[in-house]
Amino acid sequence: MEETEQSLLAESFTSAMTLNNSGVPQVPDRYVLPPSQRPALGSSTSTRETTLPVIDLSLLHQPLLRSRAIHEINMACKEFGFFQVINHGIPSSVVKDALDAATQFFDLPVEEKMLLVSANVHEPVRYGTSINHSTDRVHYWRDFIKHYSHPLPKWIDMWPSNPPCYKDKVGKYAEATHVLHRQLIEAISESLGLERSYLQEETEEGSQVMAVNCYPACPEPELALGMPPHSDFGSLTILLQSSQGLQIMDCNKNWVCVPYIEGALIVQLGDQVEVMSNGIYKSVIHRVTVNKDVKRLSFASLHSLPLHKKISPATELLNESNTASYGEFSFKDFLDYISSNDFIQQRFIDTLKKSSS
After folding, report:
1. What are phi and psi of 11, to 5 degrees?
2. Rounded distance, CA 57 to CA 61, Å?
3. What interhelical angle do 166-191 and 92-106 show, nearest 10?
4. Predicted pLDDT at 200
5. Is residue 30 part of a domain?
6. Domain residues for 191?
7. How many domains does the chain have?
8. CA triplet 308, 285, 341: central angle to 5 degrees?
9. Sign of the CA dihedral 189, 121, 246, 241?
10. 211 close to 146: Cβ distance less than 8 angstroms
């Protein structure tokens, strides 16, 4: 049965990279968004100037300045659910090597990449295009390889063997982002008034999914998106981008372009932090635009509590006048939801919200 599904998927599968390489002058109909969902590229609404927070993480390691960084994180999480970090401790050589390995992977012949294709969102290593090629009503202009990455020795042997440098170079970046995630979760817990170690055990035992994305140049970027509006399910997403393309939704529901800053990494709050904070912090809604001339690569390091571990609002943040606004959920609950629901139509976190009446 599984082999039949795999062969059917292979027959219907055309990746965004393949379309780009074939020189299509227009995006195929299946990628064309309804007019209301198209990005307003070049209009004043799509280039709205908002100062987005950039935080120097070296301050966290200076006892006299740590409180300043914690305050900046608190403000960024409350206002945007998003910030960029500099002096984050990941060497530029590790970042460059990871991007090089990703470039080589996506440049492989399509037959090679198809060995890893799957429509099963539970697969620990999965190559694909769009969001889920089999079920998407509208397709998205991206190719991806996703793989579980923590603990690294458990998963790395399943990763692509081609290009030969992939496991080593991407593995070093995955380990470095895991360390950074631990520091960030401590700071975010502290910024909420919780113990720094509030999620320490869950972070160490938690999952890390590395989504390596390729957004090829697109002939009609005003009609398509690389990724639709969504929030991430986990605790934090640490994002590396090779060029601009990410947009976040601000509190006024305007789309704001996230600038590309050389050497910076992007931190996005996920649904688990929104639930843990009982809505004090919100997960950020974001999307990805595509470009007519530039291929964009990104590494989204998606960090989550362990697969079956439930997260609920922190009891330390609740009292008689501030009761729990969300039900509990686990990473597995999220995977089960997206297996059988269109998460574009309804965000998973909206199914957890309790009515205030």
Report:
1. -70, -35
2. 8
3. 130
4. 86
5. no
6. 39-349
7. 1
8. 50
9. positive
10. yes
At residue 131, the pLDDT reads 65
Residue entry with tokens 């631990």: 182
Cα–Cα distance for residue pair 154/150, rounded to 1 Å:
7
SS3 for 330-345 is: CHHHHHHHHHHCCCCC
Closest CA to 241 of 211, 270, 219: 211
pLDDT mean values, one per 10 residues, the chain (357 residues): 46 77 89 90 56 95 96 96 97 97 95 86 85 72 94 95 96 97 96 93 89 96 93 94 94 90 96 94 94 95 90 92 89 80 74 71
Please provide residue 279's backbone torsions phi and psi, each rounded to the nearest 5 degrees: 90, 0
Q: Is residue 19 part of a domain?
A: no
**At residue 111, what are phi and psi to the nearest 5 degrees?**
-60, -35
Cα(first)–Cα(last) distance of the chain, in Å?
A: 48
Query: 329 in a domain, yes or no?
Result: yes
Q: What is the CATH number of the domain that holds 119?
A: 2.60.120.330
Question: Is residue 85 classed as helix, strand or coil in its secondary structure?
Answer: strand
Q: Which two tokens stand for residue 127?
A: 């190559």
For 221, which DSSP code?
T
Give pLDDT, residue 46.
46
Is 16:129 a contact under the CB 8 Å cutoff? Answer: yes
CA dihedral 184, 239, 118, 337 (to 10 degrees): 60
Q: Would you state the structure tokens that stand for residue 66, as one six-digit string?
A: 């740590």
Rounded Cα gap, residues 323 and 314, in angstroms = 10
Query: With contact defined as beta carbons under 8 Å apart, do 316 and 275 qualify?
Result: no
| DSSP 8-state symbol, 27 | -
- Burial annotation 140-166 (CB, 10 A radius, 16+ → b, else e): bbbbbbbbbbbebeebbeebbeebeeb
The pTM of the full predicted model, rounded to 2 decimals, is 0.90
Residue type at position 16: A
